[in-house]
Design a protein that fits this description.
By secondary structure, this protein is of the alpha/beta class. It is about 30% helix and about 25% strand. Bound molecules: guanosine-5'-triphosphate. InterPro entries: CobW-likC_sf, CobW-like_C, CobW/HypB/UreG_nucleotide-bd, P-loop_NTPase, Zinc-reg_GTPase_activator.
Length: about 325
Amino acid sequence: MSKQSNPTPVTVLTGYLGAGKTTLLNRILTEPHGRRYAVIVNEFGEVGIDNDLIVESDEDVFEMNNGCICCTVRGDLIRIIEGLMRRPHRFDGILIETTGLADPAPVAQTFFVDADVRSKTRLDSIITVVDAMHLLGEIDRAHEAQEQLAFADTIILNKIDLVSGEEIAAVEQRIRRINPTASILRSQRCDIDIASLLDRKAFDLDRILEVEPGFLEEEHDHEHDDHVTSFSLVERGPMDPGKFLDWLQMTVQAFGMDMLRMKGIIAFSDDDDRFVVQAVHMLLEGDHQRPWKEGEDRVTRMVFIGRDLPRDIISDGFLKCRAIRQAAE
Ligand SMILES: Nc1nc2c(ncn2[C@@H]2O[C@H](COP(=O)(O)OP(=O)(O)OP(=O)(O)O)[C@@H](O)[C@H]2O)c(=O)[nH]1
C-alpha cells in the first residue's frame, strides 16, 4: 500500500473514438496485477452509456458527463482528485479515461499547474489507444487524434486482427511522424501485459515541453471540430429485435463513413437480457450483456457521434423499430 507521502501515480487513457479505451480499462480492472485503482471516466454525449460498458468491479468509478474533460469539466476533475486524495489508502493509483475527442494536453496540465493536485499526485503515463483499421482514414481531419498521439509515452496499436501486416506498418509509420519516441505495442482487444503499463514512470515532461513549449504556462484553448456532433435516442417501450437489427445494419451501412461512433443499450421485447450494440464506422458489434436487474428501468438508449449525421432520418427509423403491442395486452 502506498504511503501518504508518496505521490499517487495517475495514468491517462486516451485515443480517438472507438479505438479501444474501454476495452483496455476493463482489462486493467479485471486482470490480477495486484493494484487497486480509482477510475475517472469522462464521456461525450447526453445519455451516459460508457459507465454501463465498464465491467463491474470493486474499484471506485467516477463519471464526468457534463462536458468534455479538456474543456468545461476540468474544475470537476480537480475536485474529484482532491476528494480522492483525502482517502489515499483505498487505492494505489488513479486512472482517467478521456473521451475520444479530448485533447490530452489540458488533462495532463492539471497535474502540473494545480498546486494541491501537483503535491499529491504524479502523472505516470499517457497511454493512447489507436484503431489500426481507421486511424489513417481519420487522422488528417481529426486534430484531437494527432494531439493524443503527440502526447503519448505509450501507444497501443489495437485491432491488428482487422488489418494486414503492410497496413500495420503504414499506420506505425504515420504514428512515428507524429511521435518518434513513444513505445508502440501491438494488440488485439488490448491483450497486453497490463502490469507493464502501470506505475512505470513513463511520462516525460521534458519531451512534452519540446512538443509544446507553452505546456506549463498558458491555459489551453481547445477547439473541437464543430462538425463532429452527438445525439441520443431514448425509448421506454421495448424494441422489436428483428426490425431493430435490420435497421441498425442498414443505418451503419448508409451513414458509416460519417458515423464515427455509435453505442447503445437495447431493451428487446420478450428478452430478459440487455443487448449492447456498438459501431465504429461500418464495423458493428452486438451481444447480450447481462440480465436486466430487478427494478432496473428497461429503457433503450443510444448515442451517435459523427460528422453531420441526419438525426431526423435516424430517429424516424429508430422509432419504427418499436415492438407493436397486441391490442389485447
Ligand atoms: N475487431 C476488434 N474489435 C475491437 C478491438 N478492440 C476493441 N474492439 C471493439 O471496438 C469497439 C470500441 O471499443 P471500445 O473499447 O469501446 O473503444 P473506446 O475507445 O472506449 O470508444 P469510445 O466510446 O469512443 O471512447 C467495441 O465494439 C469493441 O468490441 C480489437 O482489437 N479488434
